[in-house]
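Course exercise 7: structure representation. Students receive a sequence record and must write out the corresponding structure in token form. The form below is the worked example handed out in class, using Chromosome partitioning protein ParA (269 residues). Read each field label carefully; the graders check that inputs and outputs are placed in the correct fields and that the protein name is recorded exactly as given.

STUDENT ID: A-19
EXERCISE PROTEIN: Chromosome partitioning protein ParA
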Amino acid sequence: MHVIAVASQKGGVGKTTISLNLGLALGRAGNRALILELDAQGSLGLSLGLADRARPGVAELLTGAERLESVLLRTREPELQVLTVGRVDPTTVAGFEDALARGPVLPSVLARLSPDFDIVVVDCPAGLGKVTTRALEVATHALLPLQAEPLALRSIGQLLAVIDRVRAEKNPQLSLLGMVLSMFDRQASASLDVAETLWTKFPDGIILDTVIPRDEAFLEASLRGAPLLLMQKRPPPLARVFDQLANDVLVRLDPTSPDDDDGPISLLL
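STUDENT ANSWER:
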């Protein structure tokens, strides 16, 4: 089972939006997928139109109040399920995060999920705190949304350093799946400069081909409590971006050997 930690050193980069829509796209592509929310703010549940802290989830698994089978949420997509963060009291977030980071519940839950899922997309909280670090300790891959703005570019080294430390000290199987440029605005010179720097200065292969643009459709989808693909009967063209992202991710998870001859293929037999 592949466990993809979607992590960012700062908030507001579209991390939850990417986790939600990528999970759905992976399920639609035939993968048994789960979106696992570890952010105590509960942004994933809110993006799905759930009332604040309405459903039990990870918090109840930590306390033993619920069984794993009872907190998994089925979705309209048969291959996709969701596990939200649960009912985290805002006054006890520090205790929740400490229990999640130090206790055995997270690796135990993932071990129990392994026979039933191919891919788990983990929506981490923003920042480089103990929950994000714990997620990286149990993940197989890290996917890093990078907002197309200068501050995000200057601070990405901090997250890469955390990944290197986790790999060296706790999880040698952790690999960097790549960075995905998010909230890209082709009309803004700063956004274009960040994109050019990523594509020309970073090592080949570290930046995914898919680019997530800045678009009001994301805000509208959140307000409606649905992923882009299910926002209306006729999905907006932007929804196809996540099919492309899912394809990028799947190729990197299970790369195939390139053919010796990569020339054109004739249509006629």
